From TrEMBL:
Family annotation (Gene3D superfamilies): Bit1
InterPro entries (alphabetical): DUF2000, Pep_tRNA_hydro_II_dom_sf, UCP033763
Protein known as: DUF2000 domain-containing protein
Organism for this UniProt entry: Pseudokineococcus basanitobsidens
A Pfam family it matches: DUF2000
Amino acid sequence: MTETPAETTPAGTSGPERCVVVVDRDLPPGLATNAAAVLALSVGARYPDLPGDDLVDADAGVHPGLIPMGLPVLAAPAATLAGLRAAALARDLFVVSFPTAGQQTTDYADFTQTVAATHPDDLTYLGLALCGAAKPVRRLTGGLPLLR
């Protein structure tokens, strides 16, 4: 679930100064890794120009480019994620939300129907990706620890 305050996507933009992923600190490692990967892939799909140039090794082997900025994966209490999402949207950050229902089914149609039937105030989240200007992203997430 991606959202920006203007309900638009940043595709074709030059890209954000900073992106972070924040996941529920109590998720088991496999589910936390899954949530972070889904969020990162969703951000990458919205910012197709984000990866840097391809890397070329000493034998001329080509390795697809990686994003030139870091992408920290941070941990937060699940109960704080909805508030963090709201604060990020209020600061005009690009937000990708991963509702809890996303890990309760393998059927994307069921997932979208579940989210569609849920009042926004009742959605809970496994994780978020926040992207935008560095200062507001850091203000919102600077006190969060790395996921370990």
